[in-house]
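BUG: 3D viewer hangs when loading the predicted structure for this chain

Environment: internal workstation, default settings.
Expected: structure renders.
Actual: progress bar stalls at 90%.

Input used:
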Amino acid sequence: MDILYSIVGILIPFIGTSFGSSFVFFMKKNMSENFQKIIVGFASGVMIAASVWSLILPAVEMAENQGVISWIPATVGLLLGVIFLLFINKIAEKFENKPNGKKLNMLLFSVTLHNIPEGRWQKRQSVEMYA
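Structure tokens produced before the viewer hung:
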């Protein structure tokens, strides 16, 4: 049964990601500017919701359980994240000016930045689940 849950857990994000990326491949030449804005807005809303429900609210709840003022750790973490992203953006701009490896460097930066907080959170969740 665990294998079935694992397969379903892998397939759901795979199908969603494949569906979302299909817009780029099938509609890249005839996609209107308004439709692009709708897609970017939808993706932004999904990412904000995922950040709130999967990262910020659990951080507030963990702070409450530890007897700390609940909103302070999440706020400090959010502000540090913004500062960190601004710093990384400055570094990435230097790589953009180099003709060779621009796309590869930007891909590595974006994937790494995307996975840093998620990887830590997922590791903690899996440790707590099996403890």
